[in-house]
Amino acid sequence: MYAVEQYARAHIVTDTADSPDDERRVVPVALRYDPETDPRQVHITLPGPHEWVFARELLEQGLRVPVSKGGVRVWPLGRVQTVMEFHSAQGVAVVQVDSKALMRFLGRTYTVATPVAH
Asked: Of 17, 44, 53, 117, which has the most beta carbons under 10 Å away?
């Protein structure tokens, strides 16, 4: 088995942007899944680097309905965008990503391995 890595473009969505251009700024987002080390989790890395690790199931559900767990919230924004909100001691990061990129990533994670039920 091997890790799945994919890069996507995301828009920063925040009320603390210094200018309207900041809100429309496109940033790279790294999506990672490693079935060998953590078969139930996905890793999302934003520039900085800021990495969040959360349940793959949360990302999958968040494509259809609003969900949250811990410091992560995911919800669909219409049919083509998904919003991910990450809370940490340093503040809140909110990004908007094309849902197709997230679905493609999730599809690839399920082709490399299926989590073993415990």
From this structure: 44
